[in-house]
Amino acid sequence: NAIDDGGWDRSRFGFKGTEDLGNGLSVSFQQEFGIRADYQNGSTMQRASFVSLNGKNWGSVKAGNFWSVVDDVVSGTSAGGGGQVGWGEGVIDLSLKTSANNAVQFESLDYSGFKFGFGYSSNFYSAQDNSVSDSNMRAVFAAASYTNGGLYIGGAYTKGRQGANSLDYDEWLLGASYDFKAAKVGLAYADASFDQNKNFGAAGATDSLDRKTWRANVSVPLTAKDTVTLSYTDSRLNRGDGLKDYDASAWGVAYMHSLSKRTMLYAAAYTANATQ
């Protein structure tokens, strides 16, 4: 038991702004920092940091460190509309990586509900973010979605290559959500794999990993200010070199009460189980 920061989302502060360049163009920036609100002298870390060129008639190009278009699909397929419903997912992440470092990304306009985006990162995984290797990974990623009334359908794909370790990373994600007014449901499935020609170097390490994960969740508004959510996540990790596979699952439940338009009170609990 604990009073912890970040149950709904991590605490942060930052700056952002937009300048009108004329002729339908604008430039914007964002610089934010994460804080540990529940600890005195807690650590401060950089979060999203980027600049963006925006065109009224074509979309936007973003450069820096940011949550990618893959994260948009993860959020859109959640019954909470922003990933917050997946309390069980906090134990078993649906997607291995949804942020991009040293990256550039294009995002289209909304064409009658259809949107798409793609990007490139020269530092997708690195030692700075506790990744599997000390060497940088180059990666391309893309996502597309369609929204019509209460229906959302989305898909995303990421392909990475880490030359120093001959490591290949592939992940694809498919999902949907629908708002029935009386309840909102979401379902998503992700398949991620790591393959390399030599081991990571640690004892017992493997040169092949494949993880299949699916998530289902439902959000039910009890009143105009009260909502209850339930989520379930299941994941299977297949390991090479004759090592045992892992099966893991997690349940999550949450209650949210809006005190005002800006302030919300919530409580959440989850339980996880893993077998080898």
**What's the end-to-end separation, in Å?**
27 Å
Radius of gyration: 20 Å
Pattern of helices and strands: EEEEHEEEEEEEEEE
Class derived from helix and strand content: mainly beta
Unreliable parts: 81-86, 127-134, 198-204
Rounded average pLDDT? 82
The rough form would be described as globular
Beta-strand content bin? over 45%
Number of helices: 1
Structure summary, number of beta strands = 14
Describe the structure.
With 276 residues, the protein is mostly beta strands. The chain is built from 1 helix and 14 strands, in the order ββββαββββββββββ. It has one helix at 69-76, and strands spanning 12-22, 25-35, 44-55, 59-67, 99-107, 114-121, 138-148, 151-162, 167-179, 184-196, 208-221, 226-239, 246-258, 264-275. The protein has a 14-stranded antiparallel beta sheet with strand order 1-2-3-4-5-6-7-8-9-10-11-12-13-14, with helices on one face. Strand 1 and strand 2 (25-35) form a beta hairpin.
Brief rundown of the structure:
The chain has one helix at 69-76, and strands spanning 12-22, 25-35, 44-55, 59-67, 99-107, 114-121, 138-148, 151-162, 167-179, 184-196, 208-221, 226-239, 246-258, 264-275. It is built from one helix and 14 strands; from the N terminus they run ββββαββββββββββ.
Layout of strands and helices, then pairs:
Blueprint: E1 12-22, E2 25-35, E3 44-55, E4 59-67, H1 69-76, E5 99-107, E6 114-121, E7 138-148, E8 151-162, E9 167-179, E10 184-196, E11 208-221, E12 226-239, E13 246-258, E14 264-275
Antiparallel strand pairs: 1-2, 2-3, 3-4, 4-5, 5-6, 6-7, 7-8, 8-9, 9-10, 10-11, 11-12, 12-13, 13-14
